[in-house]
Design brief:
Order of helices and strands: HHHEHEEEEEEEEEE
Structural class: alpha+beta
Helix content: 10-25%
Strand order of the largest sheet: 1-2-4-5-8-7
Mean pLDDT: 78
Distance between the termini: 33 Å
Largest sheet: 6 strands, mixed
Number of strands: 11
Number of helices: 4
Length: 196
């Protein structure tokens, strides 16, 4: 039975890479995402990053102006110092997730969700990165994951985070857990980002 769980976790991690590649994310972008996300995850204390355990107030998503020009993907140190932000709307499924913003970059982290895969369903692929935490605490299933992407005027994208659950394929069927939608229409003063 343990071998089956290990195999499923291994397949889920591999599927995330396949889905990212299918969505058009290059290997360099994936490696960049891991280098930015992995240090933040590696510095976790009990599975939570320093930013995630911060009890600070959430700021509005557009509390700081968005830069007019694109900037480089943030470093792990920048993410560690990034303030928490409040999305335009968050549904019950995403209640345990936290969002952070630095410059025009947004990182949505769901540390307690058992994540089987993350997929970009539609929209711009530029700068989009995913990360699924490795299993921890004796579990053989990956727990925790995050998405990162830039928010720029004219952008639109939909990202789906999947989990395991009962279904036609048995108890480990891939099921939708959270859908993240981001859009910034040209005539709107600020972007709209939802997670539900």
């Amino acid at each position: 039975m343990r071998l089956r769980f290990a195999w499923i976790a291994w397949m889920a991690a591999g599927m995330a890479g396949v889905l990212a590649a299918a969505a058009g994310t290059s290997g360099a972008q994936q490696d960049g995402a891991r280098s930015a996300a992995a240090p933040a995850s590696a510095q976790q204390d009990g599975g939570r990053s320093a930013a995630a355990t911060d009890a600070g107030e959430e700021r509005p998503l557009d509390a700081e102006p968005f830069p007019a020009e694109p900037s480089k993907q943030p470093t792990a140190a920048e993410w560690k110092a990034a303030p928490r932000v409040r999305l335009s709307r968050t549904g019950p499924a995403a209640a345990g997730c936290r969002a952070y913003r630095t410059r025009e970059w947004l990182r949505i982290r769901c540390p307690e969700l058992t994540v089987s895969a993350i997929s970009l369903l539609g929209g711009k692929t530029e700068g989009v990165a995913f990360w699924i935490d490795p299993p921890r605490g004796g579990s053989e299933l990956p727990r925790g994951g995050e998405v990162m992407f830039p928010i720029r005027r004219g952008d639109r994208r939909v990202i789906q985070i999947l989990t395991f659950g009962p279904g036609y394929d048995g108890p480990f069927t891939l099921l939708p857990a959270i859908v993240v939608q981001e859009q910034w229409l040209d005539d709107e003063p600020a972007p709209t980002v939802t997670a539900s």
